[in-house]
Amino acid sequence: MLELAILGLLQESPMHGYELRKELAAKLGAIRAAISYGSLYPTLRRLQAAGWITEAAEAPATAEEVPALTSRRGRVVYKITAEGKERFAQLIGQAGPETYDDTGFGVHFAFFARTDQATRLRILEGRRRKIEERREGLRDVLGRAAERLDAYTLELQRHGLDACEREVRWLEELIANERSGRAPTIPRAGMVGGRRDNDSPPPPGESRKERP
């Protein structure tokens, strides 16, 4: 998954390791992108050895990117090669069990704009099955063992069940959009779930009392 994410980001522009780490966090979220330099740089070296990325000119390091008491060396900038673009296309076209898990799905979904519709549908439908199975497992636990769980464990199970039910609804909406050829709706400022948030300030020219 890290290989896929790096190759996808380098298709946007050449980057050095610090930029890649920041972009991974921005694109995938802090939890999925909790990537240390210990895992990032070995992957970069492996991709370079495979001929999928190459080094560009070095860029000068800024003060914020250099830890205290260390030398300010130039940063190696990486760019994707033609072979790397082919490798990315191969990876992004995969739709197996690994793409339905939390991390695999998150990385693939981040690059859905570059994925063909048929593959997007297979991944979304596989993810929905995965979450439905997780939901049924939680329902089974709550149905059979709720009386044996303490209040906090029970609340945690309910929280997990709620999260599964929300994700299934979200996936069903995405699947319906894909089948009809529509892209996901991007909420405007002041919109929540495609509806206006009545607690947010009204847009210019509209008073709060005029809002539905």
Structure report:
This protein is mostly helical. The protein is 54% helix and 6% strand. The protein is built from seven helices and five strands, in the order αβααββααααββ. The protein has helices at 2-12, 17-28, 37-49, 82-92, 102-110, 117-145, 151-180; strands at 15-16, 53-55, 77-80, 191-192, 195-196. The strands form two sheets. A three-stranded antiparallel β-sheet has the order 1-3-2. It has a two-stranded antiparallel ribbon with strand order 4-5. A hairpin with a 2-residue loop joins strand 4 and strand 5 (195-196). Helix 1 (2-12) crosses helix 4 (82-92) and helix 6 (117-145) packs antiparallel against helix 7 (151-180). The longest helix is centred in the C-terminal third of the chain and has 30 residues, at 151-180. Residues 6-89 form the Transcription regulator PadR N-terminal domain. InterPro entries: Metal_resp_DNA-bind_regulator (IPR052509), Tscrpt_reg_PadR_N (IPR005149), WH-like_DNA-bd_sf (IPR036388), WH_DNA-bd_sf (IPR036390). It comes from Micromonospora rubida. Pfam families: PadR. Residues 181-212 are annotated as: Disordered.
